[in-house]
C-alpha cells in the first residue's frame, strides 16, 4: 500500500450496513466487462439446458417470457470490491427452469453470448437461490448490464451471475469458467471472502 | 515501480481541466506520447489507478506535467482537479508506452488528430518538436465540444503560423460566425484540412475510443496507409480505464 | 452512437501492468491471434480492463488474446489466445 491521498474516498458511501469482508458499498452500478457487449435480437435469443451431448430444454424469448416470473430484491457483491444493496430484479427462477429435468449431474457450466463462461454447483442454482433475470429496477435489462437476460446468483460473487446468458451445461465433473481458470475462486462465497483459488 | 512524487504547481487550463506539475528528480526521461499511471489510496486502503498522458516535453528540469480533465462522474479526476494541493504527493508509475510516441529523430511530416482530452499526449509531441527544434512539418486537427473546452489555446495559436497547421472542429457549439455548423469530423473535413496522402505523413490519433475509430477510419479512407497511423484510445468518456 | 460499442481501450492502457513482467514495452510487440491469424502491434488490441482482470482481444475477430489477473499479489497471465508475441530488439532504446 502506498501513500494516503488526503480527502480521497473514491465513489463509495459511508454506512453501517453489514458488508461482506473487504467490500465497499456503492450507490452506482459499475459496468464491468470482459468483452464487447453482445447484441442479441429477441427473435434470435434462446436459452438452452444441455447435458453436454444433447439439448434437454430450449426456450425462445416468447416461451421464456411465458414462464412464471417473480420479483426479488437482493444485494450484489462484486469481487472487485464494490457491493450494491437492495437491487430489484424480475426473473424466472432456476427452480422453474429445471422443473421436470432429471439429472444426476452435480455441476453447471453457464454460457453467455460472446465467450464468457462460469461454473458452479448445480445445487447453488436451486432452492430460490438463482434467477434468469430480464428486468432491473422496473425496466428491461439494459445490454451493458447483461440484457436481454442474465443469470442472477446473489449469494455468490457477481462474476457468477453471467450476463447475456444463453445456456447451462450440466456436468458430472466441475470445469472452471472464464475467471475461475485464471485464479479466481471456484465457488466464490463473498461472506467467506473466497475471491481467489486457495482462499478457504 | 511506484514512486511518490510531489506537486509543485497547479494551473487551470479550462473550467474543467487542470495541469499538475510534479517534481521528478531522478526521472529516466520520457518520450512525447508516453503516459504515467497514478494511484490514489484512501485512508481505509481502498485504491484506484488511472492513466494520464504526460503533457510536457522531455526536459532537463526534473519536472513533468499532467493535464487532467474533470469528469462529472469520475472517481479520480474530481480529486486531482479540485482536492490535490501544491506540496501534496501522488504515487506514479512510468513513463509507460513505446507505440504512441514521437521522437525528435523523426523527420517526416506529421498529422496529429486529437479528440477532447486526446490533445494531451499530442501536445507533448508538439512541445517536444519545439524544444528539439525539429523542422518536420506538423498539422493538428483538434476536435472539441465547444470553444471553452480547448486546451493550450494560446500556445497553439502562437504555433499556428501556417494554413492548416492547427484546425479546430466543434461538435456541439461553434464560436460566433463560424463557417461550419457543429458536427463530428467527416470525410470532407478531413480532405480539406489534413496533409494529402501523397505527403505520406505519419499520423497520430488520440481521444475517446469512438472518436479514434471514426477518425482513423476517415484517414484510411483518404488513402493514408494503416501502417502510418498510430492510435491511442481513452475510454468512452475520454477517461483512461 | 452507443458508447457501449466503444467500451474498450487499447493495448497502450495495459503498459503499466505489463511493466511488472516484461522489461520490454509490450505495446510495440507484435502478437498473432491464434484464432484468425491476424498479426498486429499489441497497442492495437482491444482492452477490457474494468473487470476482475485485463482481457485483451483481437481487434479483427474479438477473440481473447490474453488475460491477466492480479490474484493475491500473484500475476496470472494466460496467453493461449496468441500463437506468438514478438519483440524487436532494435537499436532504439525503448523506455520500459
Topology:
The complex is a heterotrimer of chains A (200), B (241) and C (96).
Chain A: E1 24-25, E2 46-50, E3 55-60, H1 61-65, E4 70-77, E5 82-93, H2 94-97, E6 107-112, E7 117-121, E8 131-136, E9 139-140, E10 150-152, E11 165-171
Parallel strand pairs in A: 1-5, 2-11
Antiparallel strand pairs in A: 2-3, 4-5, 5-8, 6-7, 6-11, 8-9, 8-10
Chain B: E1 3-12, E2 17-23, E3 35-41, E4 47-53, E5 63-69, H1 77-83, E6 89-96, E7 110-115, H2 119-131, E8 138-144, H3 153-159, E9 166-170, H4 187-193, E10 202-208, H5 209-221, E11 229-234
Parallel strand pairs in B: 7-8, 7-10, 8-9, 10-11
Antiparallel strand pairs in B: 1-2, 1-6, 2-5, 3-4, 3-6
Chain C: E1 9-10, H1 15-18, E2 30-33, E3 39-41, E4 46-48, E5 54-57, E6 64-71, E7 74-78, E8 82-86
Antiparallel strand pairs in C: 1-4, 2-3, 2-8, 4-5, 5-6, 6-7
What's the quick description here?
By secondary structure, chain A is mostly beta strands. Chain A has helices at residues 61-65, 94-97, and strands at residues 24-25, 46-50, 55-60, 70-77, 82-93, 107-112, 117-121, 131-136, 139-140, 150-152, 165-171.
How would you portray this structure in words?
The complex is a heterotrimer of chains A (200), B (241) and C (96). Chain A has one domain: Oxidoreductase, molybdopterin-binding domain (Sulfite Oxidase, Chain A, domain 2, Alpha-Beta Complex). In chain A, strands 1, 4, 5, 8, 9 and 10 form a six-stranded mixed beta sheet that branches. Chain A has two helices and eleven strands. Chain A is mostly beta strands and 200 residues long. In chain B, the strands form two sheets. Chain B has a six-stranded antiparallel beta sheet with strand order 4-3-6-1-2-5. Chain B has a five-stranded parallel beta sheet with strand order 9-8-7-10-11, with helices on both faces. In chain B, strand 8, helix 3 and strand 9 form a beta-alpha-beta unit. Chain C has 96 residues and is mainly beta. A five-stranded antiparallel beta sheet of chain C has the order 1-4-5-6-7, with no helix packed on it. The longest helix of chain C is centred in the N-terminal third of the chain and has 4 residues. The chains are: A mainly beta (200), B alpha/beta (241), C mainly beta (96). At the B-C interface, strand 6, helix 5 and strand 11 of B face strand 1 of C.
